[in-house]
Amino acid sequence: xxxxxxxxxxxxxxxxxxxxxxxxxxxxxxxxxxxxxxxxxxxxxxxxxxxxxxxxxxxxxxxxxxxxxxxxxxxxxxxxxxxxxxxxxxxxxxxxxxxxxxxxxxxxxxxxxxxxxxxxxxxxxxxxxxxxxxxxxxxxxxxxxxxxxxxxxxxxxxxxxxxxxxxxxxxxxxxxxxxxxxxxxxxxxxxxxxxxxxxxxxxxxxxxxxxxxxxxxxxxxxxxxxxxxxxxxxxxxxxxxxxxxxxxxxxxxxxxxxxxxxxxxxxxxxxxxxxxxxxxxxxxxxxxxxxx
Length: 292
Description:
It comes from Vibrio superstes NBRC 103154. By secondary structure, this protein is α/β, with parallel strands linked by helices. The protein has 10 helices and 11 strands. α1 packs across α2 (18-25), α1 (3-15) crosses α3 (29-43) and α1 (3-15) crosses α4 (59-86). The protein starts with a helix and ends with a helix.
């Protein structure tokens, strides 16, 4: 059974059309169609019901989809295991991270990481928390670090919990919401909210805005800046704002969800052997977050 044929079948099922799957894979549409037909011929089973330009999984296609997806994950794990045994750690590691942890902490850890593993180049980019797993899934980066809002059982992504991180609904200390002994849902909905924006097209209910009036930014730092200058409220990670809470610049909103906890995770492709630098980085991030 040809793995490229199985991958074509899975990709088309995930994206809902041959043309979209071809666009995502940056390959020829005809090649994908031929791969699926070859798999159908080998299995002597129709995997898709075709109606014009629309494709829907047949009953047989639905029945084997999860097994095909698992087969691809297993194949990836086999390749990564062999690579690890050979000692072929990549000389370049691409990392995405959100800004739940302050920039100066990330800069310090990045420099220490670079000095500890001088044979490897580490490229670190800033991304929205809501995009981290998608960046790994689409292989734009090798690893990602940040708040895990997804909570999706995706066999292609491995979630390694590093520590719990407290998320706080906050506003300026002189904001009307900070004066309330108890803030109602209606009061929050009628107040301007700054929320987290992301490019990932998957539904992410954890990141839907609560307020009827809102503006979105891709970084917590922009959210914080807007809260301080525009009289809005928003949800921010404790490491970023602890000093502002201590000097009473910001106040935690007294609402049911004023304080919540999320997982701070490392995201990686299932079966990918972690570079030793990533193990080191996980340990250091865990130590840092333990203080919170």
